[in-house]
Design brief:
The chain has helices spanning 16-35, 49-55, 61-66, 85-94, 139-156, 171-187, 194-198, 213-220, 231-246, 291-294, 309-316, 337-349, 363-372, 405-410; strands spanning 39-40, 46-48, 69-71, 77-80, 104-113, 125-134, 161-167, 252-253, 265-273, 281-287, 302-308, 325-331, 354-356, 375-381, 387-391, 397-400. It has 414 residues and is an alpha+beta fold. The strands form 3 sheets. An 8-stranded mixed beta sheet has the order 1-5-6-11-10-9-7-8, sandwiched between helices. A 5-stranded mixed beta sheet has the order 13-12-14-15-16, sandwiched between helices. α5 runs parallel beside α9 (231-246). The longest helix has 20 residues, at 16-35. The two termini are 49 Å apart. The structure holds adenosine monophosphate.
Amino acid sequence: MASKYQAPRGTFDILPEQARARARLEAAATEIFARAGYESIATPAFEDTALFERGVGRSTDIVRKEMFTFEDKGGRSLTLRPEGTASICRAYLEHGLHKQAQPVKLSYLGPFFRHERPQAGRYRQFHQLGAECIGTDSPLADAEVIMLLSDLLEELGVPAVELRLGSLGSFEARRAYLEDLKAHLHAHEGELSKDVRERIDINPLRAFDSDDEGTRGVMESAPTIVERLEGEDAEHFAEVRALLDGAGTSYVVDPTLVRGLDYYTRTIFSFVCDRLGAQSEIGGGGRYDGLIEQLGGPSTPAVGFAAGIERILLALDEEVPTAGRDAFIAIADAGQRPRAMALAVELRHAGLSAEVDLAGRGLKGQLKHANRIGARRVLILEADGNAQLRDMESGEQRPADPGKLVDEMRGGNP
Ligand code: AMP
């Protein structure tokens, strides 16, 4: 019977059959992060609103339209975290991680919240996994975080993935470039969509992201920053590319690549999967050398990425079968209940997955249930203290040694 309550718009429940594919993904990510020395960090699900305004940027869609902001009982403005990097940089400064040996390499995984229009692959509560390498401007770090995500997608078997790579240059280079870009946009104002026109001076880069035909035409002749990179910015980008080439990681340089957050400098990247339809980006990130200083800390270069767990699962579109159970203890006589429970606990302590009938089924019903949950062996406890061992795959049944039931269930044939 359906309840009159439903999960809020843009949210979803993760049922056990979906949780399995998710657990596989999370285990693979945790393993890849650990092997590269990216230790796990967890930050609160909400933060001071000002952190995101400052850290993500007031001109971004996220801050302008998408934050779940509320006032707590003490009159403080709080916001459910829309992304992870600003919070991690806050924690890095708050706990003095900048005084430790650098870089500090961190990874995370958890729920994030954006008030977006829900559609396939876009939710109001979604999950990201990500990594941040804070405290170095070495191109090796850029290449390393990019390869963490490409390794993960490869290991999981995500099909049809393309890595797009760009560079925004340093803050100064970007500032000079943005003036030229604004001039180009102003010169073609009449051909731009309303949304882009209104934001020429606030966030001109977003014009590259527009679906509007007129805007796209204007952007074809727009100057790009990649073609104008100079000096150390150009060297940095060349080295990141050389490192990826050396590692055999394929990519395309996309001079029109932009990202939805204000804090990026130099390297930016995006992994897209053409099987995902409109929301085709699986994950992305880049370098954010100015962010920590902007949050009040010392000037600290950093690079990282975030990937959407739901997008990866959608691209994989796989069902992970249940692992089944090693053992099911069937109770042929109610007097055997205490023994059944004790045995189930003993088997679990021995590392086996074991279940016991909790629903008062008859023996036939219990065997049917054992089959349903994928039990490999069933132990039938009989009234006289004897037991039968049934192999569910072959259907064979034989008396079990009552003194060695755990060994019997472990598969050792006495
Ligand atoms: P961003 O933090 O905007 O760079 O996004 C990083 C990744 O998070 C994207 O590539 C998506 O895979 C995922 N993502 C962002 N917003 C959403 C959303 N509303 N619903 C589901 N996934 C999202």
